[in-house]
Each structure stands twice: as C-alpha cells, then as structure tokens.
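From the shared-data thread, chain only:
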Amino acid sequence: MIQASFKKNPAQAQATFKSVSELKDGLVSSGQLRTFQIKADEPESFGGTDSAPNPVEVLLFSLGACQAGQGKKEEITTKAFANAMGVPLKRVSVELQGHIDLRGFFAVDESIRAGFNKIEGTFTVESPADTETIEKLKAAVDAHCPVKDMLQAVPMEVKLNHIQV
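Structure, as tokens:
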C-alpha cells in the first residue's frame, strides 16, 4: 500500500510536477504535461477560436478528475481512499460549475477577483455501501484531494449523491 510505504520512507513521498505551455495563434496555448500534449483556447465570445477548453474549464476538470478517479488502475483520491477503507465502488462521477464574475478578469472592476467566486456541484457515488460509509469516504476525499486543497480560497459546495446499488 502506498500510504504504508510513505510512512516508512517519507523521502519517497516527495514529488514535482511540471507543465510547459506556449501561446500560439490568437489565444490558443499548447502545452506538455509529461508525455501528454494539451491545448487551451477561449470561446469565440472572449476572442478565441473555441478550439479547446479554456484554462478555468481545465481547472474544473482537474478538480473533478482528482476527486473521482474512475480508472481501473488509477489511484486518484476517491479510489485510493475507497481501497484503503474497503469501500466497493461501482461508479464515481463529479459534475462541477465554477461561477466567475468576468469584470475581474477583464479589469472592469479591480475590487472583483479574477478567478472563481464559487464552485459547486454534485459528487455521485454508486456503491453497495451504506450512506454513512459513503459520507465518511467523501469527507476523506475532501480532506485529501490536492486540487481541492489548492482551491480552498474559493467557496466550494460539492453535494454528495449516493446511489446505493
């Protein structure tokens, strides 16, 4: 188990992640994350070509992906804690909405922050486990998701939707 390994050898728990991005044509940025290529653009209404998600959409996806971790071999937050707690999962999904006042981004009003002012959504878990167990799992995910941790300055309300199967 990963947690036991890190307790024995804290030096193994140190990680560095790297991203390289470059502005290309118009508002399109291309980037590299390890061996993966990624692209970002803005909608046409913001002056982009709408050829890719914009950076704030990628951030919302990052939060949802960090919390959900549906892949069979991925040890992303929910899967890692479900495994550690012995909670069987059938399906996990996260739907998020980020609310932003664009006056901050476009420098219309300097008193308004440029980023999200609220993130809300639904964390859906299909599992045969009882609701109390799933609530404990969500609490562990909320407490340990690195992306959520980095966004703590933003009010966030992600409601649990437990589908007992």
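Confidence is low (pLDDT under 50) at residues 71-75.
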